[in-house]
């Protein structure tokens, strides 16, 4: 008996060792592929057609073909896709860096328009895609889909991925257009995920006006509560670092605390069933405005590049995996007997995406232009086409939501679910490859000023953590320097805002009015309590102290 038990234990240990070694081999290959994506993306930088996203997608497809051939058609990927891996580990650094690097002045100046495009526009697109799928797919033989599935399809394909367009646009040359495309992309992802979660949490077997009201109330609650939680976490990190001032002993603690608090904001949102995307995005904005200015200079440089690097690697990882998983033989086996249906479903979804996008971009742009008086703040028709085009591409968020809805642990045995997964993969591949490659020539044709375009990496060096505060300015000047691009923020406009004296002025210039009162609140309460620009950490022996001593010696 003991011999049988020992032999059984030995066999289990050998199997476990083999499994562990296989995982190590897979991770080695995956890391090597990530390195290859970065190197090849760099070599293709001068091409100005390719970028790391498309490069990773192509390498993933090529690797999937090789693995498929080696395994005899059994498997095409090294890792099993998991929406938990995506939502818990890969998405937070991408969204946080977006908020951390954003130019807050442009973002909040166009905040109402961004929310209209990102929230209201996504609801319009969701409605059109859901109703279109409900009316058309029932006529096709694609298996049994319930009402919740059709609504989930609307949420899945309402989620955009504007990475390729943002890589072509330069926010310093086209600030309004870049701000709208960038801001809408973040709010759109958050709205799509909130919609998707709301659909899964409601009983849709009986729909009445109360269910609809509860749905909208839940939607608004998630939006507002997630934003408040993100801002609160960011302010808490700023207060802790300002009061305890870790930099006088160790800058490592500063950097570690910023990273952990950023991730904590996302996990708290998940804990309280809120939108982690919105929470971590606004946490990034608040941290860049307060916390980042409370740390030492070395910590500022470290955190800025650390967050950008994590975001960059996560994006490349996602596109690489999507490319490999696109050839998963298990899902394509269900549609091998009727490829025409899969092509038809993918084409219909692409058409609905284009129609749903146009249904709100052009009307909302007209409404925004009608409310603006300055020509520089209006969106031209060519720019509207760029905004419409930027939202046609679908990416990892759509993939993750589709896997969540139509698979169980990455696998499916139902024909209808398999068709929806393969159609989602087809739409993501086609939109990223074809629309992504056509983005550069299209924008050059519509906005033919070469100075408006630069070819940049997936992680652009943009935003607020480039805004260093200049100490020792004469008088009460409040001046920012855009370190990344060498541009000065237009703070003259901020200081010359006339105090609003009537309700009419509030309605005519809401942005300036809100900004006026916000500046008063910041100067009287926010900065004295939470720090921020103007709070310069003073560490013995630091570059700040040395530069200050040099200035004192000269005087």
UniProtKB/TrEMBL annotation:
Phylogenetic classification of the source organism: Eukaryota, Viridiplantae, Streptophyta, Embryophyta, Tracheophyta
Family annotation (Pfam families): Na_H_Exchanger (PF00999)
Cation/H+ exchanger transmembrane domain segment(s): 31-443
Transmembrane segments: 22-44, 56-73, 85-102, 114-138, 176-199, 219-241, 262-287, 307-329, 341-366, 386-406, 418-438
Keyword match Membrane: yes
Example of a GO cellular component annotation carried by this entry: plasma membrane
Main location: membrane
Protein name, as recorded: Na+/H+ antiporter
Domain of life of the source: Eukaryota
Subcellular location: Membrane
Membrane topology, as annotated: Multi-pass membrane protein
Keywords for this protein: Ion transport, Membrane, Potassium, Potassium transport, Sodium, Sodium transport, Transmembrane, Transmembrane helix, Transport
MF annotations from Gene Ontology: potassium:proton antiporter activity; sodium:proton antiporter activity
GO biological process annotation, one example: sodium ion import across plasma membrane
InterPro entries attached to this UniProt entry: Cation/H_exchanger_CPA1, Cation/H_exchanger_TM, NaH_exchanger
Catalytic activity from the UniProt record: K(+)(in) + H(+)(out) = K(+)(out) + H(+)(in); Na(+)(in) + H(+)(out) = Na(+)(out) + H(+)(in)
């Amino acid at each position: 008996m003991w011999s049988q038990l020992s032999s059984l234990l030995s066999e289990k240990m050998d199997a476990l060792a083999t499994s562990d070694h296989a995982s190590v081999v897979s991770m080695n290959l995956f890391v090597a592929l990530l390195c290859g994506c970065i190197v090849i993306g760099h070599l293709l930088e001068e091409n100005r057609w390719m970028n790391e996203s498309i490069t990773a997608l192509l390498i993933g497809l090529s690797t999937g073909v090789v693995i498929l051939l080696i395994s005899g058609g059994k498997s095409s990927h090294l890792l099993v896709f998991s929406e938990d891996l995506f939502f818990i580990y890969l998405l937070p650094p991408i969204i946080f860096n977006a908020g951390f690097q954003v130019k807050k002045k442009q973002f909040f100046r166009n905040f109402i328009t961004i929310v209209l495009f990102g929230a209201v526009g996504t609801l319009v697109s969701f409605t059109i895609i859901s109703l279109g799928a409900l009316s058309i797919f029932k006529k096709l033989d694609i298996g049994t889909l319930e009402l919740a599935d059709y609504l989930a399809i609307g949420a899945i394909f309402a989620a955009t991925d504007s990475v390729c367009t943002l890589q072509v646009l330069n926010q310093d040359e086209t600030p309004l257009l870049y701000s709208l495309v960038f801001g809408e992309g973040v709010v759109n992802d958050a709205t799509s995920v909130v919609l998707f979660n709301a659909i899964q949490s409601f009983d849709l077997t009986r729909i009445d006006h109360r269910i609809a009201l509860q749905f909208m109330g839940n939607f608004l609650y998630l939006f507002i509560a997630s934003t408040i939680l993100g801002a609160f976490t960011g302010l808490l990190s700023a207060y802790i670092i300002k009061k305890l001032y870790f930099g006088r002993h160790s800058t490592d603690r500063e950097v570690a605390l910023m990273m952990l608090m950023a991730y904590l904001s996302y996990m708290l949102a998940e804990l309280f069933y809120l939108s982690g995307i919105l929470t971590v995005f606004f946490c990034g904005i608040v941290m860049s405005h307060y916390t980042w200015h409370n740390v030492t200079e070395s910590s500022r440089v470290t955190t800025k590049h650390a967050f950008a690097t994590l975001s960059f690697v996560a994006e490349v990882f996602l596109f690489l995996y999507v490319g490999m998983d696109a050839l998963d033989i298990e899902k394509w086996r269900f549609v091998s007997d009727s490829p025409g249906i899969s092509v038809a479903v993918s084409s219909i979804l692409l058409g609905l995406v284009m129609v749903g996008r146009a249904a709100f971009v052009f009307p909302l742009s007209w409404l925004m232009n009608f409310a603006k008086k300055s020509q520089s703040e209006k969106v031209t028709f060519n720019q509207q086409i760029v905004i419409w085009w930027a939202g046609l591409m679908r990416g990892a968020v759509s993939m993750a939501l589709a896997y969540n809805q139509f698979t169980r642990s990455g696998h499916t045995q139902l024909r209808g679910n398999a068709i929806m997964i393969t159609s989602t993969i087809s739409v993501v591949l086609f939109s990223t490859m074809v629309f992504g490659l056509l983005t550069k020539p299209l924008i050059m044709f519509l906005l033919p000023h070469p100075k408006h375009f630069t070819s940049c990496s997936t992680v652009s060096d943009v935003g607020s953590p480039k805004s260093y505060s200049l100490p020792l300015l004469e008088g009460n000047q409040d001046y920012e320097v855009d370190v990344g691009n060498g541009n000065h923020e237009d703070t003259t406009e901020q200081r010359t805002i006339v105090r609003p004296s009537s309700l009419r002025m509030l309605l005519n210039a809401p942005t300036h009015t809100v900004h006026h009162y916000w500046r008063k609140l910041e100067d009287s309460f926010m900065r004295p309590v939470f720090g921020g620009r103007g709070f310069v950490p003073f560490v013995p022996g630091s570059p700040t102290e040395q530069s200050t001593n040099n200035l004192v010696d000269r005087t």
